[in-house]
TrEMBL record:
The keyword Membrane is assigned to this record: no
Protein name: Aspartate racemase
Keyword RNA-binding part of the UniProt annotation: no
Record family assignment: Belongs to the aspartate/glutamate racemases family.
Pfam families per the UniProt record, alphabetical: Asp_Glu_race
Gene3D superfamilies listed in its UniProt record: 3.40.50.1860
GO molecular function: amino-acid racemase activity
InterPro entries in UniProt: Asp/Glu/hydantoin_racemase, Asp/Glu_race, Asp_race
Amino acid sequence: MTAIEPQTIGVLGGMSSQSTIEYYRRIDEGINEAVGGHNDGDLLVRSVNFGDIERFIRTDAWESAGEYLVEAAQGLEAGGADFVVMATNTMHKVAPEITQSLSIPFVHIVDVTADAILESGVETVGVLGTRATMEQSFYRERFAEHGIDVVVPGPAAREAVDTIIFEELTKGVVRADARERYLAEIDTMVSEGAAGIVLGCTEIDLLVEQADRPEIPMFDTTALHVERAIELSLGETTGIDDGR
């Protein structure tokens, strides 16, 4: 049996439980696939109350959100995590506050996704996510730092995409008509110049996958974030640049 000494992954989750479950499952499965035997991930999971997070988002209480998540992330560091991944796209709006509060690395979901986009040769992507992710500058500007342009759906479509996330996907509800709506928005963004699509919410991969539109590259932020966490835990990559 192979003995391993992986780094401990701190998963800041609960935003929502659906995506946190996927992070936990995929990390364990990925490490077992890489190492074999009965090995799986060395993880600490801090699952926050999604009701608090939803309220912060809806009321634009980002300062309170930052304080709340800083405390949770610091708890992971105190518990022995070697680095932190936050299992959500939207709450990366407060990633700078979290990063500065930690003495361990924070692995930013946009940076990981941008690496995959650039490797594919794509320069313009369409983004599906919550309204905050699609409308506010933090997401677009982080991609711009990597030289990647962002296209988003129109106002009515953004509202529909956001509603499906909060009222269905975060509750584990997956409906065929919601999938068709998302695919229609993908087609529209492609017609407007997107050469790839970012699934910019960690629940969207429950609804849409590459096989739905094989001709257009999709960048699944959950899968990419998990893959990087596994690589870091197993020492297959080093040198996290978290902006400090």
